[in-house]
Amino acid sequence: MSSLKEYLEGYAGGVKSLLTGMGTSMKVFCQKKVTEQYPENRHTTLHIPERHRALLTMPTDDEGNHKCIACGLCQMNCPNGTIKLTTEMHETEEGKKKKVLVKYEYNLGSCMFCMLCVNVCPHDAIKFTNDFENAVFEKEKLVLTLNKK
Amino acid sequence: MNDYYNLEALTSVIHAALCGVMPEWVALTIECVIVGVIIILLYAVLAVIMIYMERKVCAAFQCRIGPNRVGGKGGLLQVPADVLKILIKEIFTPAHVDKFLYSLAPYLVILASVFTFSCLPWNNGGLILHMNIGIFFVLAASSIGVLGILLAGWSSDSKYTLMGAMRSGAMIISYELSIGISVLTMVVMAGTMDIHELVMGQADGWNIFKGHIPAILAFIIYLIAGNAEANRGPFDLAEAEQELTAGYHTEYSGMHFGFFYLAEYMNLFITAGIATTIFLGGWMPLHVPGLDGFNAVMDYIPGIVWFLGKTFLVIFLLMWIRWTYPRLRIDQILTLEWKYLMPSALVVLVLMTFCTLMGWTF
Fold first, then answer.
1. Is the ipTM of this complex over 0.85?
2. How many helices (H) and strands (E) does chain B have?
3. Which domains does chain A have, with CATH numbers?
4. Which pLDDT belongs to residue B298?
């Protein structure tokens, strides 16, 4: 008798769990679809997460000044040797010597987006943006100069 | 019941006109050829529609959109493009196969499927194969398909195909019992095996309403077993992609593979069509006894629309099952059939017999 009870209980439990599954899938059926229709929606509904790392940039203020102090920490921390700084020593009016950034070269082709450079920067001079459409036909075009002046 | 769309008048006019200009046997031959061409065309067109539907429904169940690029906004030309591709592919025969059986197998599968397909009641007067044991014939003809599957698996001379064929043979032969018993349940209620009479008997309400509880239970059992008969998930272990590449049709290519694929989809349509015929009234419009005005309005909708509408509804139910559950193992499948489904079907059969004897059906 107990085995019959077991059988019937298993039967009922099975039917119940199957119906739960059907309910779940019907809920998904009626949901809004998650597919991104990429090339069509790039100017409308395209959603890239805010923290997505796509391209290293050096933000500037309204007058075009960046915050880089040419300390070279990013270059030293980069595991791939992606960043190359060219600096010059300038003498200020008070007679102090100061390192000044001439050229900030960033090779997108060898960057692995580990974000060590951004994390180590003492003045938040560089940051990653969401502009991910970076494909080009020649590898030379991947070497970018980040500072404008 | 008013019948505005009876095809019988049209077909007898055509027959009389043909007999007027030629001997009857020539007329019959010509009619048979025309009907055959219509069946095959319908078969192909419906398969294309169903593959499209399957892809869209599957996508929706997985929170995707599905094909949407080829042929404008809805991806309407995706499936025709796939059909064209498969038509121009080479039919390749591996070196060690049994050549005769290897090329015979797909035709057996498609033959079984076309046989059962021609038993569907499309419209009043639109039943193509009419015989007084129609439902019986459907069950018998659909069993030819498993022969084709077994032959394909054996003759391909490959481990994958053999295992797929053995699994599917064990499964289909088992589930045939549940299908047979659940169909028998409705035959007990309707008192006929003739498909035309089955449909005409539902003029005062579909069988699923007339037979209430046992009919609904039989419908559910039929759907589960029908899904297994059509080799579709969660019973698709015969072609379990992850373990067996493609199961029994691994070694087939081009249109030979296409035949298996076509037959699989059309078996789904046939399963749904037979379910529509015996449970949901075939081409019969929805009639509620007593509401004469409502019944008259329903009669204005042609039978073919009713039949296709109900069939696609059942197909949607079957797809819902398919895209909800994960694939079962072979022992689980046989446990489900022999320990749960078939006993339930027998209980429902006894229940229905009792109800019919006591006059508890409407």
1. no
2. 16, 0
3. 55-145 (3.30.70.3270)
4. 76
